[in-house]
Amino acid sequence: MTPDQTIPQLRALFDQQGQDPYFGEPVTQLEHALQCAALAERAGSDNDTVVAAFLHDIGHLLPVESAEAYMDGYGTVDHERLGADHLRALGFSEKTAVLIENHVNAKRYLVTKFPEYDARLSDASRQTLAFQGGPMSADEMVAFEANPYFHEILALRRWDEEAKEVGFETPSPDYYFVYCRDHLSR
């Protein structure tokens, strides 16, 4: 698929569901994505990471086959893997996919490593944690820490938690679709 085919497909997902509430939070799906990308950009992140921040929850926007695929009103079970696999198939980089695929693992890791982190989670993030495997085991933590993108994954998680603010000023979706086009054109 070329960028000229891929970008309209991504745009359509946001057009169809971007104004839906972001599961128990005071922002929409699109506002959350834009805020996360803006935070990544403000931190001086590379293209792969800004794109991952923008598209990290794309798995929530993809069609699912059954009601069992939902987390009691909190989105799609395994959305991180579904989104990463979808973006790999569209030609996005492995780094972008790995960041997306692991942003839930980062929450599981942080809750385990820093018990006080749980108190910083929104109610919705706490609710989804049980569907997402709960705290990590010691072996899972060791494997997660060995990921070559460990620090970027933790940063993405931090932006994910922060990107729930009403009235947060961001660039338009078109601005981040240019990031995606540039990413796919490399």
From TrEMBL:
Gene3D superfamilies: Hypothetical protein af1432. It comes from the Bacteria. SMART domains: HDc. Residues 29-130 form the HD domain. Transmembrane segments: none annotated. SUPFAM superfamilies: HD-domain/PDEase-like. PANTHER family: HD DOMAIN-CONTAINING PROTEIN, PTHR40202. This is HD domain-containing protein. The lineage of its organism: Bacteria, Pseudomonadati, Bacteroidota, Cytophagia, Cytophagales.
